[in-house]
Amino acid sequence: MTELVRDVVIIGAGATGLTAATTLKKAGASVAVLEARDRVGGRLWTDDIEGAMLEIGGQWVSPDQSALIETLDELGLETFSRYREGESVYVDAAGQRRRFTGDIFPVAPETERIMNELIERLDAMVAEIDPDAPWEHPNAREWDKISWEAWLEQQTDDAEALANIAMFTGAAMLTKPAHAFSLLQSLLMAASAGSFTHLVDADFILDKRVIGGLQQVPIRLAERLGDDLFLEQPVLRLEHGDDGVVAHGRSVTVRAKRAILALAPTLYHRISFEPALPRIPQQMHQHLSMGFVIKVHAVYERPFWRDAGLSGTAFSPFQLVHEAYDNTNHGDERGTLVGFVSDQNADDVFRLSDEERRTSILESLATYYGDEAKHPVVYYESDWGAEEWTRGAYAASFDLGGLQRYGADLRRPIGPIHFACSDMAGAGYQHVDGAIRMGRLVAAQIAEQDAKGAQGPRA
Ligand code: FDA
């Protein structure tokens, strides 16, 4: 057993933990990072699958994600734009395929009018929400006790408009069924991206990718830590008290003044806290759960859809694959499509055999792009639900009423224990940008408390 003494022990080497660790180290603190997996990056993972470089986890960068963009610049990483020339495809409830340009799907004029009106109304509501404190809005309680789906049903009886609007924060973002989270949670999702319109605008929200893969962010940050990073060290026991913490990894124990839990809050229950956490956090952590989406990668000899004048962008709340994009790598002659199968659809296809699941997913892609889509040379499903140290994708959100009830407590330190993760970000919530913001915030919180010479208040 290696025994270390440090100022701060950081548990988790994702974008949050590594941002916090490198920021603290730069400011002169001694740190140790304990990571459960045999790699850094957590939900960022760029890998070679049968000769194809795939972004198994997060990949896109949008123009509002200033913390991520600053980090990319600082690390010398270059970006390229997602391919978007040509027409997009929409498939309606009857399975009818239509090509279109712009953001609004090619629906009947009345449905289009309702969709535009809803987006406008949601933009106005979102503009009133502080993404760092949505629970402070005067309507927070009211908006948190109604599901996103139930609220939309109160606004319109146009089923197609409802399904499309529900998808933007449901299947496409929180990756839970629209009845399983609140209107307030949906508004937070949009506020964290700047507006509801931004979520509708795929060219904004899925703007750029990093050449060589987004996992280079955690990899390059980790290089700055040298010997202060320890892999394959799941922390399952954390002693804490007035004199600091002791974090127990598999073969490394770190005694420190403070700990940062830089992992999804849905995984805190894996850790035995000694003494147990106070009742509010113990309760609160049970009201958060991970969404679930399968990210499907299909690589072809060439991007055949481009020959047909298609951008590769495709949507349908009625399809197994509810959204798909051209995900061809920078400078690659082969063409890659990426598609997403969300929430209950994802559960359902994992009840099928591997072959049946692959066939169903490729048939759904073929509905958008034609039969050629059924024959990729490389096919891969990112299954984060099966990952012990993540257990879902993309991130965690509260159940009905949870955000208003507990949101303000989520980031509050408990004695020497601090909490940070993209799942508790305001701007950049659920995204790498939010992870970096939370890493910076927790480092600043610790520096401030150290400057005051006091430990954080007990909850
Ligand atoms: P993260 O979960 O990455 O890191 C936590 C770390 O803690 C992990 O390395 C884990 O192994 C470790 N850990 C857990 N328990 C531990 C324990 N007990 N002891 C020690 N270590 C422990 N974002 C974006 O900006 N653009 C995008 O396009 C996408 N797309 C996307 C697709 C998919 C499929 C996924 C899964 C996610 C995305 N995201 C995304 C989201 C983005 O990847 C995510 O928000 C951040 O990478 C999360 O970073 P964190 O460091 O906060 O958590």
In short:
The chain is an alpha/beta fold and 459 residues long. The chain is built from 16 helices and 21 strands. Among the domains are: 148 residues, FAD/NAD(P)-binding domain (3-Layer(bba) Sandwich); 159 residues, Polyamine Oxidase, Chain A, domain 2.
Layout of strands and helices, then pairs:
Blueprint: E1 2-11, H1 15-26, E2 31-34, E3 46-49, E4 52-55, H2 66-74, E5 79-81, E6 87-91, E7 97-100, H3 109-127, H4 140-144, H5 148-155, H6 159-174, H7 183-192, H8 196-200, H9 202-205, E8 208-210, H10 216-223, E9 229-230, E10 237-241, E11 244-248, E12 252-261, E13 272-274, H11 279-284, E14 288-290, E15 293-300, H12 304-307, E16 310-315, E17 323-326, E18 335-342, H13 343-349, H14 354-369, E19 378-382, E20 396-398, H15 402-406, E21 417-419, H16 432-452
Parallel strand pairs: 1-2, 1-12, 2-9, 6-16, 10-13, 12-21
Antiparallel strand pairs: 3-4, 5-8, 6-7, 10-11, 11-12, 14-20, 15-18, 15-19, 16-17, 17-18
Helix pairs in contact: 1-10, 1-16, 2-16, 3-6, 3-7, 5-6, 6-7
The protein binds dihydroflavine-adenine dinucleotide.
The site of dihydroflavine-adenine dinucleotide has 41 residues, from helix 1 and helix 16.
Provide an overview of this structure:
The chain has about 450 residues and is of the alpha/beta class. Among the domains are: about 1-45 and about 215-275 and about 415-455, FAD/NAD(P)-binding domain (3-Layer(bba) Sandwich); about 45-65 and about 80-105 and about 200-210 and about 290-395, Polyamine Oxidase, Chain A, domain 2. It contains 16 helices and 21 strands. The strands form 5 sheets. Strands 1, 2, 9, 10, 11, 12, 13 and 21 form an 8-stranded mixed β-sheet that branches. Strands 7-6-16-17-18-15-19 form a 7-stranded mixed β-sheet. A two-stranded antiparallel sheet has the order 3-4. α1 (about 15-25) runs parallel beside α16 and α5 (about 150-155) packs antiparallel against α6 (about 160-175). The radius of gyration is 22 Å and the shape is globular. The chain binds dihydroflavine-adenine dinucleotide. Dihydroflavine-adenine dinucleotide (FDA) binds next to α1 and α16.
